[in-house]
Write a structure and sequence with these properties.
Layout: H1 2-26, E1 29-33, H2 44-50, E2 55-57, H3 75-89, E3 95-100, H4 102-113, E4 120-124, H5 132-145, H6 152-162, H7 169-178, H8 181-193, E5 206-212, H9 217-228, E6 233-238, H10 245-248, H11 250-261, E7 271-272
Parallel strand pairs: 1-2, 1-3, 3-4, 4-5, 5-6
Antiparallel strand pairs: 6-7
Length: 274
């Protein structure tokens, strides 16, 4: 009897394991791409919300977070890494790509390079109208301003402007102090020179574009350009917010993402970009 009971228990646990493995295989995958100067920790609350229904990935971009000691940032290489991640793990499942700021530019690049690889994309605050003149201003000032990124008082000031909660300040401080000058320079260069690729309109994904109402005019024009450049793109403006949507209004952000995935009406607070 004991032997039979043990066999039944073993069979039961094997069944449960197979069910769990099957569940993992059928779950859609969701990839979150962080902004410049931060790393994957910025998505921790989103991961906690979505991890039951989706298989979530939050890679650190080149030169950021756990990869601060690697070669300096590259938009192209970052996009290729995301493509490789999707090809390795998707295995025919639905793919949802979410990007913020620099990560949103990389998401745009992924959609433009591999039009069939993503099913749903959420593009938050992506600059796609080049500002090379601003880079020419930033470059000579960088040697003077870079040391400030290592000062606690300056980091705390920046965190406050970004609307970061106090419980993530240590993460932000660590990222800021580990960010290398070469990475910062190449990141600025690629960010400010980036323009919407012509192939973006060929992407098969449904796309949601967001921008804060208090963001700079160039960011609003970028959001409008992305929205109008794709037949399956919808654009929304987030009221009373700057470049801080994913930090300051997390509940609204997550509700918006879930509604868009499920093709339900978006939260009424959001204003359509026309």
């Amino acid at each position: 009897m004991k032997k039979q009971s043990a066999q039944k228990a073993a069979a039961f646990f094997l069944y449960i394991r197979k069910v769990n493995e099957l569940s993992m295989r059928v779950k859609p995958i969701m990839i979150f791409l962080h902004g410049g100067g931060v790393s994957s920790w910025m998505w921790e609350e989103q991961i906690q919300t979505f991890k039951e229904a989706y298989e979530c990935y939050t890679p650190d971009l080149i030169g950021h977070g756990t990869r601060a000691d690697e070669q300096s940032f590259s938009m192209r290489e970052s996009a290729l890494e995301v493509v490789s991640l999707i090809k390795e793990h998707a295995q025919g499942r639905q793919v949802i790509l979410v990007g913020f700021s620099l990560g949103a530019q990389i998401a745009v690049e992924v959609l433009s390079k591999e039009p069939d690889i993503v099913d749903i994309a959420v593009i938050n605050s992506a600059l796609v109208k080049p500002l090379p003149w601003l880079y020419l201003m930033v470059r000579p000032l960088l040697p003077l301003t870079y040391p400030l990124l290592k000062k606690d008082w300056f980091i705390e000031l920046q965190a406050e402007k970004m609307g970061l909660p106090k419980d993530v300040l240590n993460h932000y401080m660590a990222d800021s102090k580990s960010l290398q000058k070469k990475t910062l320079l190449t990141m600025f260069q690629e960010n400010l020179h980036y323009k919407l690729p012509d192939t973006f309109q060929q992407a098969k994904a449904r796309i949601l574009v967001t921008v804060g109402e208090k963001e700079k005019g160039i960011m609003k024009r970028s959001a409008k350009k992305i929205t109008n450049s794709h037949p399956q793109a919808a654009g929304v403006m987030v009221p009373a917010i700057g470049h801080t949507f994913t930090f300051e209004k997390k509940e609204l952000f997550m509700d918006m993402v879930q509604c868009f995935i499920e093709e339900r009406a978006l939260p009424v607070e959001l204003k359509e970009i026309k």
